[in-house]
Write a structure and sequence with these properties.
Length: 204
């Protein structure tokens, strides 16, 4: 469905955001959303197929921003290795949190905490699984090129990634202020990054 910029659409989306943030997806109702924006149910359905579609319209941009960042992140490491350049540290998911997630905490609270009953309810687990698959493939390429990469099983990597990604998003789940989230990020950076650099064989 095209992204509508009309006044009514903006009012509906603002009302839906408030409803989903307060009630969560499962307990939210289209009637309550209509009451919040003073638009009839029939009027709301001109802008979405149903409650699920309305929720997806709200959270899809946040999900897309993370996916685009993750693709750029991995491409930044994969592309040089394809031409046998030295493996150098560039950035991490901590930079993703700093640049995208923490400045937009409400968007990601909606996506992660309020999404039970939608296809996004296991978002962090899905994110972990995708990262695991791509990292394992990347490590195989590095080993074939002669880089000294420690051996790690898929289940061991899954354990580390689950701890890492869960910790990164805890400030979102617990609705930290931006300042609190940034302080937590510094602690996570000091704790996790040395281990990741060692595991992946980075030289700088």
């Amino acid at each position: 469905m095209p992204r509508d910029k009309t006044v009514n659409h903006i009012k509906i989306m603002a009302a839906a955001r408030a409803e989903f943030l307060e009630m969560g997806y499962e307990k939210a109702s289209m009637r309550s959303i209509g009451d919040r924006c003073q638009i009839t149910a029939a009027g709301i359905y001109r802008h979405c197929k149903d409650k699920e579609d309305l929720f997806y319209q709200l959270v899809a941009p946040a999900k897309e921003r993370l996916a685009e960042w993750a693709d750029r992140h991995m491409a930044g490491y994969e592309a040089p290795i394809k031409i046998h350049e030295e493996l150098m540290w560039k950035d991490s998911y901590i930079d993703m949190m700093r640049e995208i997630v923490y400045p937009n905490m409400e968007d990601y609270y909606l996506l992660i905490v309020c999404s039970k009953g939608t296809k996004y309810e296991n978002f962090l687990n899905d994110m972990t699984q995708m990262a695991q698959e791509r990292i394992l493939d990347f490590m195989d390429v590095l080993r074939k090129q002669g880089h000294e990469i420690p051996l790690i099983t898929a289940s061991q990597l899954h354990l580390l990634l689950t701890a890492y990604i869960t910790a990164l998003f805890e400030p979102v789940v617990h609705n930290y202020s931006y300042e609190e989230a940034m302080g937590a990020l510094e602690t996570l950076e000091e704790f996790f990054l040395p281990g990741w650099k060692k595991l992946m064989g980075f030289q700088g």
